[in-house]
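Reminder: ligand-aware prediction takes two inputs, not one.
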Amino acid sequence: MTVAQDLAAVRERVAAARHLAVLTGAGVSAESGVPTFRDAQTGLWARFRPEELATEAAFRAHPQRVWDWYAFRRERVAEAQPNAGHLALAGFARRHPDRLTLITQNVDGLHQRAGSTGVLALHGQLFENAWLDAPQPCCDLERERVGSPSACAGCGNLRRPAVVWFGEALPLKTLAAAQQAARACDVLLVVGTSGQVYPAAGLAQTAQDAGAHVVVVNTAPTALDAVADVVLRGSAALILPELLSFK
Ligand SMILES: [Zn+2]
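Here is what comes back for the chain with zinc ion:
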C-alpha cells in the first residue's frame, strides 16, 4: 500500500472507532522545539550526569542544584508552543467527547496548553510541584513558603517538581488508567516515541492483545514497528491532523 492509502485506511479506522487511545512521546514535543533532557544539558549543566540532576538522592543531596536545573528547563519549555499535532488531538476530543484517551510520556504540558483535558501524564508534569516527603498537616502547596527550593514553613518539607525521576515508579493510578484505555480502545496510535521505554511497548502489546488496531506514527523506525498493524512514517504535526480532522 502507498502512504496515502495507509493514511486513508487508518483515518477510516479512527472515524469508526468507538474509543481511541493515543500515546505520545518525545518526538511530538521535539516538533515544538522542546529540548530533550540531554539536549537541555548545555552550558553549566553539561558537566552533570543525568542521575545528578533527576533522582531523589540528587535532590536530597543538592536541592538547590536540582531545583535550578528544573527552573532552567521550565524556562526553556515555556518558550515552546503546541504544534499542529497537539492541536489536532485537542480538537478531536472537543468534537468527540469521551472518545479519546490521551496518554503522554511528555512532562512539558503542551497537550494541556493545546486544550486537552484529562491527559494521563505517565512521567508527571514539569510545571507542577509536589512534596518530597509525605505531607504533614502543616503542608499546603499554596501556602507560606521559605527558602529555595521552597519548603513548608511548618515542617521543612521540600517542594519538588512533580516529574518522575530516574528510579521512581510511575504514578500508579495514571498507569492503571492508561492500561485500561489500552484494553478498551479500538485503535491505539503510538506517536513520536521510540518504543524502547516502558510503558510504551507494554501499552501497545496490551492494546493489540485486546484486539485493537495499533498504529505507529514516527519519523524514524521504532522498536514497536514490528508489533504495529500499520506504521505511518512522518511527523506528528503533519499526520495527526490528517487522521483526526474529519467531521
Ligand atoms: Zn509541613
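The beta strands are 20-24, 100-104, 120-121, 124-131, 145-146, 151-152, 159-163, 187-191, 213-218, 230-233. Residues 136, 138-139, 152, 154-155, 157 surround zinc ion (CB under 6 Å). We will return to this case in the review session.
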